[in-house]
Each structure stands twice: as structure tokens, then as C-alpha cells.
Design goal:
By secondary structure, this protein is an alpha+beta fold. The protein is built from 16 helices and five strands. The chain folds into two domains: 2-222, Beta Polymerase, domain 2 (2-Layer Sandwich); 237-371, no CATH class. The chain is elongated, with a radius of gyration of 31 Å.
């Protein structure tokens, strides 16, 4: 029993081969250090969140954490370590084998963010061990299932020396890094109670479902990359858009003599490029651009990027003069870039784009135009 007496410094115990002694020692450690353990969890979440926020190239959905239940810790020790340690006659403490007493999870948006997070975390913490379940699955033919990266970590020497972290220096933690899709699969996978000793047809259905989740991860990344490529292509192509606008003007001036030309249709990417040209200091949010572009295309399905640019180029000076007077005479009210564009389109083609302005806005704009 002497070997199982608890040292009160940090709740450490002297190793023994007596499970009952070690079980009681772990329970006493857990209860007496519960507040410090939870404080460590909160501190590690704050630290990791701060590190991630400094990396703009990493897209993270959430950072969360939990303290493992006391009896769950004992159950894990019994399943994974007890028999081997007792067979080897190796004295043990339970605490040293529960590296995930504090567990954190980073949920990324895309597959390649997982490796970026790993590199960042490895630079900032001491890595004790790595379990790469992504490689384990991907390097096994015909195998599907939970994918994620698990790191057993502790504070680096430099941070342990800092006053705000010194109290947590003795607490390791497990960090799981997953994508949103991998996280969703993990949650659903735990709901499938029977996966091994079941008919092959049911096994195949489970594997098919897991494969679809894996495919979804790849497609999300591919869509992100293709979206970036489309935006880059439009960003380098404004001169071409301007040339298409010149052609639109010529076609309108001599409609019967010049056959219509096939130009690129307006979409969210070309809208973003053109709007960015006229409003270089405004940050256009993707979801707003997407909905606004659809509104324009719904009203004029054949609108090209050149025609849209033509409308803005031909009317924006007038609309900005109206904007200046409107904001001067209506204290506290402003016309944001989307509202300015609505006025430009209306000024360019009243019949098609009348519904883009409210009755009050149209009447105000028309009254101003008559006065000016």
C-alpha cells in the first residue's frame, strides 16, 4: 500500500502493480485537480484559437475541448493498458497512460488545412506522439472509415516558463484535427452500432457511405480551388471586359449592321471583378454577391459581363452625383455599392430593371434627374 500513497504535489502517485490502489489514486487526483484540469482546457483552447487566427490561409470551423469523464478514463486504461502492464510486471500509475484526459478538437473546412494546422501546432507545442488515421485509411486498399489526425501534446519549454502557463505545465492533452466532413462522419459512425459481425451486404453499404463522405471532402476542396481559379481569371481580364463593353455600345448604335457577338455571360465571378473595379475600397461578401448576381440575371437572362459593365460605365457618374446629394440632404442615410449598382442598372434600362428599386427610390431618383 505504501507504493500507492499519493504525493500531493500535482497529484502524482508512486507506481505500483496494485490496480485498486492505482484506481483510488487516480480518482483522488481527478477530484482534487478538477478545477486546474478544466482551467488548462480553457487556456489551451484560447491559445490554439489565437494561433489559428494569425494564419489567414487556414480555414477553421471551430475549436472545442472537453475533460474526459473520470470513469471513462478508468475504462480506457482497463481496455488498452492494464493487462499488458500486469503481464510485464511493470509498475504503473493510471494517470501517465491517460494522455487524453484533456481533449481538444480543431475542425477545418478543407483537407489540406489539416496538414497546415499540424505544421503550425508542431512548431508551438511539444509533440509526444502522432496517430495519423488519415494515412492509415488512405493507404489501405478498400478501407473506409473515420479519418483524422491525433496529436498527443504538451506545452513547449518556453511556454512552461511563462507565468500564465506554469500551473498547466504538467498537463498533456490530445488534439484531434479533422475536416467538417470527417467530423460529421465520426458523429454518424458512432451511431452505427453493428459494423463487424454483420452480413456482407450491410458492410458494403456502410463502406459505400464512408466512401461518399471521403469523396465529399475531395469535392469541397476541388470546388474551392476551382472557385479561386475562376476569380483569378476574371481578375486578370478586365481589359477584355472593357472591350466587350465597347462592342455592346457599337451593337446598340448600329444594331442592324453588326451581328450580335457571343460574349461571356455575367456570373458571380465576373460581377465581383467589375464591381471591384468601380468600388475598389469595398469588400464584397461572397454570399451577397451570389444572391445579387442571381437577381440581375433573373431579370435579364441574356446579360453578359460586357453589358453589365456597359451599364455601370455609362451611368455611374450620374448615379454618384445623385448619391452625393441624397446623402447630403438625408442625414445619416447612405447608398451602399449594391444600391448604387441598382440605380445604375435602372438608369441603363428602366423597363428591365425597374423592380431593382423600390417605388420610393425610383420616384426620388427620377425627381432628381428632372431637376438636373
Amino acid at each position: 500500500m505504501v507504493a500507492g500513497l499519493i504525493e500531493r504535489t500535482w497529484g502524482k502517485s508512486v507506481a505500483s502493480l496494485d490496480y485498486e490502489t492505482e484506481k483510488n489514486a487516480f480518482r483522488e487526483y481527478y477530484e482534487s485537480n478538477r478545477a486546474i484540469i478544466d482551467g488548462a482546457r480553457k487556456s489551451f483552447i484560447t491559445l490554439i484559437s489565437s494561433l489559428l487566427s494569425s494564419e489567414s490561409v487556414i480555414s477553421v470551423s471551430k475549436v472545442e475541448g472537453r475533460v474526459k469523464d473520470r470513469e471513462e478514463c478508468l475504462g480506457k486504461f482497463n481496455r488498452k493498458y492494464r493487462k499488458r502492464l500486469e503481464d510485464e510486471k511493470a509498475p504503473y500509475t493510471i494517470r501517465e497512460h491517460i494522455t487524453d484526459l484533456i481533449g481538444l478538437r480543431i475542425v477545418c473546412l478543407y483537407e489540406d488545412d489539416v496538414e497546415r494546422v499540424r505544421e503550425l501546432i508542431s512548431q508551438e507545442f511539444e509533440v509526444m506522439s502522432v496517430t495519423d488515421k488519415i494515412s492509415q485509411i488512405e493507404n489501405t486498399e478498400g478501407s473506409f472509415g473515420y479519418k483524422g489526425l491525433h496529436l498527443d501534446l504538451r506545452l513547449s519549454g518556453g511556454r512552461k516558463a511563462l507565468k500564465e502557463y506554469a500551473i498547466y505545465a504538467d498537463h498533456p492533452f490530445e488534439l484531434q484535427i479533422r475536416t467538417v466532413v470527417q467530423d460529421s462522419w465520426s458523429i454518424l459512425d458512432h451511431k452505427i452500432k453493428y459494423k463487424k459481425s454483420i452480413p456482407n451486404g450491410l458492410k458494403r453499404r456502410i463502406n459505400t457511405l464512408a466512401a461518399l463522405f471521403e469523396l465529399a471532402d475531395r469535392e469541397f476542396r476541388a470546388i474551392r480551388d476551382s472557385t479561386s481559379e475562376e476569380i483569378d481569371r476574371e481578375n486578370s481580364d478586365y481589359d477584355q471586359i472593357d472591350q466587350e463593353s465597347e462592342a455592346v455600345g457599337a451593337e446598340l448604335h448600329e444594331a442592324r449592321e453588326i451581328p450580335p457577338r457571343r460574349h461571356a455571360p455575367l456570373n458571380a465571378f465576373s460581377f465581383l471583378r467589375i464591381a471591384g473595379h468601380f468600388f475598389p475600397n469595398h469588400e464584397f461578401e461572397a454570399h451577397k454577391v451570389d444572391g445579387f448576381t442571381k437577381e440581375i440575371v433573373d431579370l435579364k437572362p441574356d446579360i453578359t459581363r460586357g453589358k453589365f459593365n456597359f451599364y455601370l460605365r455609362g451611368t455611374i457618374s450620374e448615379v454618384k452625383r445623385y448619391q452625393a446629394e441624397f446623402e447630403r440632404t438625408n442625414e445619416g442615410e447612405t447608398l451602399n455599392p449594391y444600391t448604387v449598382i441598382r440605380h445604375c442598372l435602372y438608369a441603363g434600362d428602366k423597363e428591365v430593371f425597374a423592380s431593382m428599386l423600390t417605388d420610393v427610390a425610383r420616384e426620388s431618383f427620377e425627381a432628381w434627374r428632372q431637376r438636373n
